[in-house]
Amino acid sequence: MKILIRGAGDLATGIAARLYRCGHEILMTETEEPLTVRRTVAFSRAVYEGRAQVEDIEAVLAGNMAEARQILSDGNIPVLVDARAAVREAFRPDVLIDAIIAKKNLGTAITDAPLVIGTGPGFTAGVDCHCVIETKRGHTLGRLIWEGTAIPNTGVPGNVGGYTIERLLRAAGDGRIRPTVSIGSRVEKGQITAYTGGVPVYAAMSGIVRGMLQEGAMVKKGMKIGDIDARCELSHCYTISDKALAVGGAALEAVELYGRMKGKYGLVILAAGRGLRFGGDKLSCLVHDKPVYQYMLDKAAAFSGVEKLIVTGNERIMEAARQMGVTPVENREPERGISWSLKLGLRAMLEKRPGVEGVLFCVCDQPGLHAATIQKIWNRAAVRRGRIICAGHEGRPGNPVLWPRAFFPELMAREGGVGGRAVMARHPDRIDIVESRETELRDIDRKEDMEEVWERRWGI
Questions:
Q1: Under a CB-based contact definition with an 8 Å cutoff, are residues 435 and 392 in contact?
Q2: Secondary structure tally for the chain: helices H, strands E
Q3: Predicted structure pTM score
Q4: Which is it for the CA torsion 187, 165, 243, 178, positive or negative?
Q5: Phi-psi region for residue 337, left (φ > 0), alpha (ψ -120 to 50) or beta?
Q6: What is the dihedral of CA 105, 38, 255, 369, to 10 degrees?
Q7: Helix or strand or coil: residue 401?
Q8: DSSP structure class, residue 215
Q9: How confident is the model over 227-241, as pLDDT tens digits?
Q10: What Rg value do the Cα atoms of the chain yield, rounded?
Q11: At what angle do helices 242-261 and 10-20 cross, to 10 degrees?
C-alpha cells in the first residue's frame, strides 16, 4: 500500500523501516529545518544532507512529486519538504501516519486517507484519526488505541539506563547551536557539550552522546538539543531504538489489519422510514443546528476507503449525501418496510461492488453512534470473517450490523418491517457483539425523544 508519513524523525523512521521492510511504498514529509536530536537514526537528515542512510534503508530528498516517484521506483524512500503534507492530494495514500510527535495535532484529519494513524498525545481515535499509537515508555508502549487518546504528555522523558530528566541536553540560550561534542562521544557530568546563542550547555550526567542537533540549527532556550545515554553502547547511536521499533510495529499492525479490510466491505445507511411513531420527518429535525441525518453522514465521511450508499426518498438527504461522496439509492415505497430498504441497499451495493464480502447497515436516526464503534466493527470483521458483527451493550445486540456475504440470500428474502432481526434470531451462534455505550444505541422513535437533554441521552 501507499503510505504517507508526516515527519521523518527517529520515531517516524522506525515506523517507515518496519513498513518498508514489509514491502509498502513510503513517502515522508518534513519541515525546512528539521530539529531531530537522534538524527543519525532519522531520515529527516536527508533534508539538509540530500540523503540519509539508516541501517539498510536509504531516504533521498525529493524536490517535487515527480522526483519522489522516481526515488520510489529506485526502491528508496523519498522525503519532501512539505510541513502541511499537501502532497497527499497528488499521492493519494491508502494510509496517512502523523508521526510529527508534536504532542498536538498540527492539521491531520480523519478524512485525509482511508486509514489515518496518530502517534502519541494530541490525537483522538474516532475523531481526528482512526487509531492512535501509544508512545510513552512503559507497559502500554506500542499499543493501538481505537477509541480515545494516548497518555497525556507529562513533560518528563522516559527512563533510559536509569535516567530521565538528567539525560536531556537543553538549550541555555536563544540562537544557533554549536556542538562541542559529536554523537557517539563520551562525556562527563559538568562537561560543556554545546553552545546555544553563545551560552554553554553542560552535561547533567556522564555517558555517551546518543543525539545532538545539527550545527547551525536555530533553537530557543529550554528546547531539547541533545541526549546522553548512560548505557554507553555505541551501536545504540546508529540503530533504530526499541521504542521506535515498538511504535513501528504498532503502525504495521494497523496497516496490515486495514489491508485485510481494504475494498472488501461496503456501508449502507438506511434513511427511508416514514416516521409514523414520530409523526413526521424526524431525520430533518435540527439538533445543535444540524439535521439528524447529518450526524450519520459525518460519521460515514471518516471511511473514505469504503463504498457508501444511502437509501432514502428524501431529496434533501439525497443532495447532502451526494456532496459528501455517498451515493443515494431512491426508495419511493417506504410503506414496504425496512426489509425493502435493506434489499434496495444490498442490491445497489452488489451492482457497484460485485465481490463485496460484507455490508455494514447503519440506521440514520442514531445520532449518538461513534465513528470509533464503526471502526471496531470493521476490525472485528477483518479477523472474524463469516460472522455477523454488530454494536451492542451488555450482550444486547443493536445497530449498526455488518452482514457477511453468506447471509445476503436470507436478507434478500425478507419482507415487511422485520428486516435482519429475524435472520439474527435464527443464527445466534454466528453473532459477535462489539461492546458500545448504551447511549450510542439509542435511536429516535417519538417526539418525546427529542425533548430530552441531548448530552444526557445521546452524549453529543
A1: yes
A2: 14, 28
A3: 0.93
A4: negative
A5: left
A6: -20
A7: strand
A8: T
A9: 999 999 999 999 999
A10: 26
A11: 50
